[in-house]
Amino acid sequence: MRFEEAYSGNVFIGATPEVEEADTIIYGMPMDWTVSFRPGSRFGPKRVREVSLVLEEYSPYLRRDLSEVKYYDAGDIPLAFGNPEKSVHQIGNFVAKVLEQKKMPLGIGGEHLVTWPVVREVSKYYNKLAVIHLDAHADLRTDYEGEIYSHATPLRKIAQLIGPENVYQFGIRSGTREEFQYAEGEKIHFHPFDVLEPLKKSLPELEGRPVYVTVDIDVLDPAFAPGTGTPEPGGISSSELLEAIHAISRSGVKVVGADLVEVAPAYDPTEQTPVTAAKVIREMLLGFSK
């Protein structure tokens, strides 16, 4: 198997140079074609990789070192600039290759629409797939001002694909009336505002099941992550997000894929947002990988 690398520069800290040895494939999805407020998340994957070098490879939370897991950084997927439908198709094709080789996909976005084609492919390989979604926004619209390919729609598409009863949403504090009514009227496990307490209560329900985890960096309060396209006040802290990742890691769920999306570096000159994202990805690698 050969993955085409579409960028030159740093890879995520500690990545193996040999794809055959890897259990997990890191890849970037540099897309922000449908954002509704501020563009720039297409630059997120590259910057998250670059700032990952500030981190230690050892996690005192999980007492594991990145040398204990094998992962390969495949670079950014080359996407059709400005064409969301074609880009979604390209992302799906890439992830299909990862899954064919029985490797776990770990994506860096990019806007949140990129999660939709990944989950679509993962659901073909794993029966009874569940999705854990941490976000400020419900992302349950059918369209955004007539556009069905929008970063406001991926969780609606996912719910329709795998069944709303298999979608678990946490931290939601923004959305339309229709989105909240849809979540509450269907069988979505919908937990607005809070993350840790409802997540920990939900995890036993998912024990033994394949789970995909998607994290929008704006689940954090803008005080902790100002570098994002659609900041929403009232979010959780970076410590709470790390604790949520660790709770998933220590539970009995089988994580079969994950992503972290919506980092837009231009809006955070302090770089705390990409550094936080890199640390979350480090904890995902150590907690979710084999």
TrEMBL record:
Keyword terms of this UniProt record: Hydrolase, Metal-binding
Alphabetical list of InterPro entries matching this protein: Agmatinase-rel (IPR005925), Ureohydrolase (IPR006035), Ureohydrolase_dom_sf (IPR023696), Ureohydrolase_Mn_BS (IPR020855)
Statement: the UniProt record of this protein carries the keyword Membrane: no
CDD domains linked: Agmatinase-like_2
A family per Pfam: Arginase
Enzyme class, broadest EC rank: hydrolase
SUPFAM superfamilies the UniProt entry points to: Arginase/deacetylase
NCBIfam families reported for this sequence: agmatinase (TIGR01230)
The family this protein is said to belong to: Belongs to the arginase family. Agmatinase subfamily.
Name listed for the protein in its UniProt record: Agmatinase
Gene: speB
